């Protein structure tokens, strides 16, 4: 991230020539700023922290006109779809063969299940699954493609476009092919190879796994942690180890699909509550506890409340302090999915607990992924030692799934250590310096009968210290900027500024934006299905003075409610303030064309950009 | 509406007076609403013309009102079981409620030893890894490393090359800029390698089949599955909520029986054609046995089932080039409808894949949960997998080395005396499971004995492992076994040495501790049902518990929520239904209007037709019914917009 400044423009050429070489080639020179932008201005920094005086802006409701026309759009789309199906099945049978029973076989996909894909998504398929090459950092290289048969198939044209990337979950900008972390991963590959070989409960445990799990638990501030090789599977294979029949899971209605998957596998009963509505949760808890199990009215064995720290489609943040108070009252267990918040929130980057100053040991299970902030993959489960040890022997992933691979572990260790900073053993460090890689249970596990809750009452806020140097593998050499934590801190502060700036800026421009202002996920509502592809295409092929292409994510029905199609921006520490300016201007231009703005007291794009610092620090 | 009451002189005259005055007030109020005279005129004329129709319309209004005022949240107070409680009572109940601990502690002594007894490897996993605890180098029979790709230097160079071009993680799901060209390249490489239409790659091998099955098999569909299928398949079947029939492990006669039964059942029931699948594994993860693919394919064609074949272990392990069981049996891979394999096991990279026809993989790109909702796998895992395939294609001699090693090992093990073991694994399989033929009375004791064998072998420098099982979570509890994975990386001498070591350990531990004579069990060595110990409760009952989602549950209000498609899909269905309704209405209306010349509009039809024309009468009823249907859907819909 340090180095010479950008030479004019936005610091990266958007021609095909600069795109990375083929998969087998190396890329040691150039493109550094295309992965991570150079932005030395210290005024453009902010600290992500809960401020009770800071009022969150009121959610802007869409006008009835927008709502009705959106429904009407779907009506037209669906009617046309059915007409085309009706017609096609009779006169163009070839295209519909796989949807109709034939030769004694039932259709492999039902008509209705694939209707959305065929008749609605297909129309905007050019905005999804765009193939890329190279690093998904500040910029991304798109492989240009075209379709001659209305998106049924795509052909690569052979050209490439480098575009500003506001879509990847690269919150702290660790998606890099160069730099300290990548060097560490290279050293890791040379030492460890690619695969860990086998499941963790068989022979797939390397010393690297043990080291990474120790570091993760230190990072989170919990007693112990375990690592699973896939983020989705972290939820879907762990929840069945926690709850079963006779238990109740209370789940936020917008929880991720992996949580639903896991809960369904567990066999526990589920109730959902309105998104992030703590009153609704309170009512539901009172009802559930007082009514007990359905029919028998027997008390529930246990109640597990599953929520997310930061909701990936809404950008809303969990009301953690209220939830902790309710946890005291209602004695439920709390499972917080920090897939998006870990690394991205809080002054130390330790997620929602850090953001609100809540002791992470108050929460029974903390789950998170490494795909997002750490530029790796997989997920972790953190909690008390006896709980984690029990999950280790009961979780599907530990017994049957492949262990997480060494290169990924190296990336986790190096990026996490650089956020924490590394220091010689501290007094606060919990572990003895002689690190022995063993998974042994605590010898005194006779008190496991005590509810885990009793462990959760340790007072005092969490102290997030640096990583003790003996937690790192001895062969891993990180550059000084990563070791002393200055770069990590810089990344956190840049992300916090960028998030707040874009979120506030879009609101001032008059867009309908939801979510918390400190959230690095900023959804901008489009509502009409037809505006999704147009927005995406216009961002990519911009008209006007500045033609820097931007790639955005448009999200619709399967991931969001039907009515609220949106564009989702994911900010990164790799973006510079100029990048955000560019996005604001681009949105401003397109917003006028697509009629996306509403409300009074709108600012012009120039004014928003000029008063950026004021906007960010405004309460 | 404003019916005139002819007042009889009666003692309740004042009451009637009050009523009449109220009525007049209401009437005046009603008249002041703009458009009300039209409504009254309409009702009057329609009542005169067709009293039935007015009745229908009245019903419609009542129905609409009911729909508006009915509660839209399920399970709340609606259940007949709901007990009304005062706030104070609820507070007391909340105070009294004591949850069970979040996790149960280890219940047995043996469970305490599971985690400490796990080997931790210091340094890279290879065929000769170093143990962290002792610092000793051991021979590794516990990692899938069929052709020795674990420590291949070429692969490392490829990985570093990719790292320098792509970074590590694509930082997003495949749908949102997570699709790298190297992923597509890998998909093409696998497809070409297997000779199959198209391939989709998932980022974890375990989650692949768990996600593939529910993408196709839905409620009401029938799956006939082998009793020994691995845990991932069991979970996939559970989540798909389809009807599962089990056939005895690798018993083709029983498979045919089950297929026949399904066919018969379908004929008896009638109704639309259901999707039907056979689910099995190439080489079974649970015991190393191999499927009789030729027979299964024959049966599947005969009874018109589709085949989902999990080749997680066999892909990269068996066949002349490691293409899996299709290569062994000479069955074209295109005959398998859904072929699932693993890059983590067979190619020593990471992730899994599903191969099939183009529309099969395309469907998964939006319906495969673990594909859509998960980040794409790191680019370097894709290129290393591609490189591994390249190595497998260009150097088939590694497979002859592997076959040689398997033969040597099994021959060495066969010299075992004094202890009776049972190896159900196929002679071509590099995955060898060793079962005790005369097991002690409890599973725990058996596991402990096998663990002793593992520890003893480790002491002699050979790393093997006890097959990890989740006791109590499998559908059919598999018997404990030793899991041995042979690699082509070993020389013949090393393989012989390892076989000797394992044999010695088996003799030492099992020979001394269990002087149990071989009981009736020997004769079933051909019958693999030994491998599936039935649970203590009735197998049928258990199955029902695992897979009964069609059974109406006692607490439907509670249980139906997670099973329902969720608010998003409901929303979509609603709009979809509504749209259907509109279409229906438009069609019916246009048919009615077009076929009645002289009556161009609805209001005209009301006033100038006579009610004794049966055709018009019929047409009008259809119209009313369509309006009824429209309202039925329109009302909840309007109110779901949260006006």
Automatic annotation (TrEMBL), chain A:
Q: Which organism is it from?
A: Filobasidium floriforme
The entry's family comment says:
Belongs to the class-II pyridoxal-phosphate-dependent aminotransferase family.
Catalysis performed (reactions): L-serine + hexadecanoyl-CoA + H(+) = 3-oxosphinganine + CO2 + CoA
By its UniProt entry, which Gene3D superfamilies does this protein fall under?
Aspartate Aminotransferase, domain 1 (3.90.1150.10), Type I PLP-dependent aspartate aminotransferase-like (Major domain) (3.40.640.10)
Region ranges (Disordered): 12-32
Q: What is this protein called?
A: serine C-palmitoyltransferase
* Pathway note: Sphingolipid metabolism; Lipid metabolism; sphingolipid metabolism
PROSITE patterns per the UniProt record, alphabetical? AA_TRANSFER_CLASS_2 (PS00599)
One GO biological process this protein is involved in is: sphingosine biosynthetic process
The Enzyme Commission number assigned here is 2.3.1.50
- Main location (coarse class): endoplasmic reticulum
Pfam family of this protein, just one? Aminotran_1_2
Q: Where does the protein end up?
A: Endoplasmic reticulum; Membrane
> Which coenzyme or cofactor does it need?
pyridoxal 5'-phosphate
Keywords of the record: Acyltransferase, Endoplasmic reticulum, Lipid metabolism, Membrane, Pyridoxal phosphate, Sphingolipid metabolism, Transferase, Transmembrane, Transmembrane helix
Q: Which GO terms describe its cellular component?
A: endoplasmic reticulum; membrane; serine palmitoyltransferase complex
Q: Which residues form the Aminotransferase class I/classII large domain?
A: 164-415, 487-585
Q: Which InterPro entries match?
A: Aminotrans_II_pyridoxalP_BS (IPR001917), Aminotransferase_I/II_large (IPR004839), AON_synthase_class-II (IPR050087), PyrdxlP-dep_Trfase (IPR015424), PyrdxlP-dep_Trfase_major (IPR015421), PyrdxlP-dep_Trfase_small (IPR015422)
Query: What Gene Ontology molecular function terms does this protein carry?
Result: pyridoxal phosphate binding; serine C-palmitoyltransferase activity
TrEMBL record, chain B:
Names of required cofactors: pyridoxal 5'-phosphate
Name the pathway it acts in.
Sphingolipid metabolism; Lipid metabolism; sphingolipid metabolism
Q: Provide the GO biological process annotations.
A: ceramide biosynthetic process; sphingosine biosynthetic process
GO MF, any single term: serine C-palmitoyltransferase activity
- Database matches in Pfam families: Aminotran_1_2
From which domain of life does this come?
Eukaryota
State the UniProt keywords alphabetically.
Acyltransferase, Lipid metabolism, Membrane, Pyridoxal phosphate, Sphingolipid metabolism, Transferase, Transmembrane, Transmembrane helix
Q: What region holds the Aminotransferase class I/classII large domain?
A: 175-499
The protein's matches in SUPFAM superfamilies, at most eight in alphabetical order, are given as: PLP-dependent transferases
Q: A Gene Ontology CC term for this entry? A: membrane
Q: Where are the transmembrane segments?
A: 578-596, 622-641
Record-linked InterPro entries: Aminotransferase_I/II_large, AON_synthase_class-II, PyrdxlP-dep_Trfase, PyrdxlP-dep_Trfase_major, PyrdxlP-dep_Trfase_small
Please state which protein family the record places this protein in: Belongs to the class-II pyridoxal-phosphate-dependent aminotransferase family.
Q: What is this protein called?
A: serine C-palmitoyltransferase
